[in-house]
Prior knowledge:
Blueprint: E1 8-14, E2 19-26, E3 31-38, H1 44-48, E4 56-60, E5 64-65, E6 84-87, E7 89-90, H2 103-110, E8 114-116, H3 120-130, E9 133-139, H4 144-153, H5 163-166, E10 172-174, E11 194-198, H6 204-211, E12 216-220, H7 226-231, E13 236-239, H8 250-259, E14 265-268, H9 270-278, E15 283-299, E16 305-316, E17 325-331, E18 337-342, E19 347-350, H10 365-374
Parallel strand pairs: 3-4, 4-6, 5-7, 6-8, 11-12, 11-13, 13-14, 14-19
Antiparallel strand pairs: 1-2, 1-9, 2-8, 3-9, 10-12, 15-16, 15-17, 17-18, 18-19
Amino acid sequence: MVHRNSLQPGYLLLEDGARFEGDTFFGTEPSFGEAVFNTSHSGYQEILTDPSYHKQIMTFTATHIGNVGVNREDVESDRVQVAGAVVRALAPRARNWRAEDDLETWMEKAGSPVLAGADTRAITLHLRSRGAMRAGLFPASVPERQALEQVKASPSMEGADLAGEVSCTAKWTYTPDDLPERWYPLSSSGAGKRVAVLDFGVKRNILRELARRGCAVEVLPATSTAQEVLQGGYDGLLISNGPGDPAAVTQGIATVRGLIGELPLFGICLGHQLLSLAAGLETFKLPFGHRGANHPVRAERDGSVEITSQNHGFAVREGGLPKEWRISHINLNDRTIEGLEHKELPVFSIQYHPEASPGPHEGWVYFDRFVEMLKG
């Protein structure tokens, strides 16, 4: 475990030159990524391990982070995905019966730095005003001029195809036997159905939602072609979430385009964007993204409002919608597109995270809808 008295102050430096001090830098080396913020009040472990946050520096708006420690069951991937974290106050001790480690030690083992004691409200207000941007986390010993040069030399999120960096490299299987039943009670609604998951950075909770309905789930690499998917004889395909610029994931767009009309498709987050691009729409970068667990979304079918968990920095551009498609959901904060569906084929997508984790569970119904599509 890191000894706090051996650590030094540090700072977050944005590419526009804005500097935010912290009283403690937990780490040994600078780290670079896109600076973003998340407004969720809980679920920091799920956020830190979500592959959609790959190469991003996460600022938490919740005041205290680390209170409940970390455990093996709540992770969304096999490693910490963020480039670093910024918190107002880091809990010195985990106080939960499920904790297997404290957040500080866990992040140190992962090689992902944490800046504690920073003014996270000021950082959030700055990003809301100026937009998400390249940034770096540095120990105080690194001169600011040198640090800013390094930040400006780091890659931008626009044009970045990051899916291949977080995707699996070979097919693997997730089964109901992998579920801790006390948290994920099983049903048989999807029994006998085989679902392929195109892995652009899939969250484990997406796999859990499929498996707990009885589906046999096989996870495929992001490089899989439409022909390879069809050769698997699956009953349906889920197009997963993931990091980076969706327009840069050209192989994924081509694969999805080749599967429309061939089998039921369900896209989530990046999967929604890839399906939209395959349908002929465009995507664009949001000023500071949607990241939190209480975003209101209107379902166009009946006007009902869903409270949703979101994590995306890009969105689908309105305009040019082909006549065979319809918009199914609208974000009530900024009117961006939150869902798309084909008028005739069993194909639909959701921009937000229906599997939540963290967040509300209203979106579970879309897994039920997908399972019904699998039954034909």
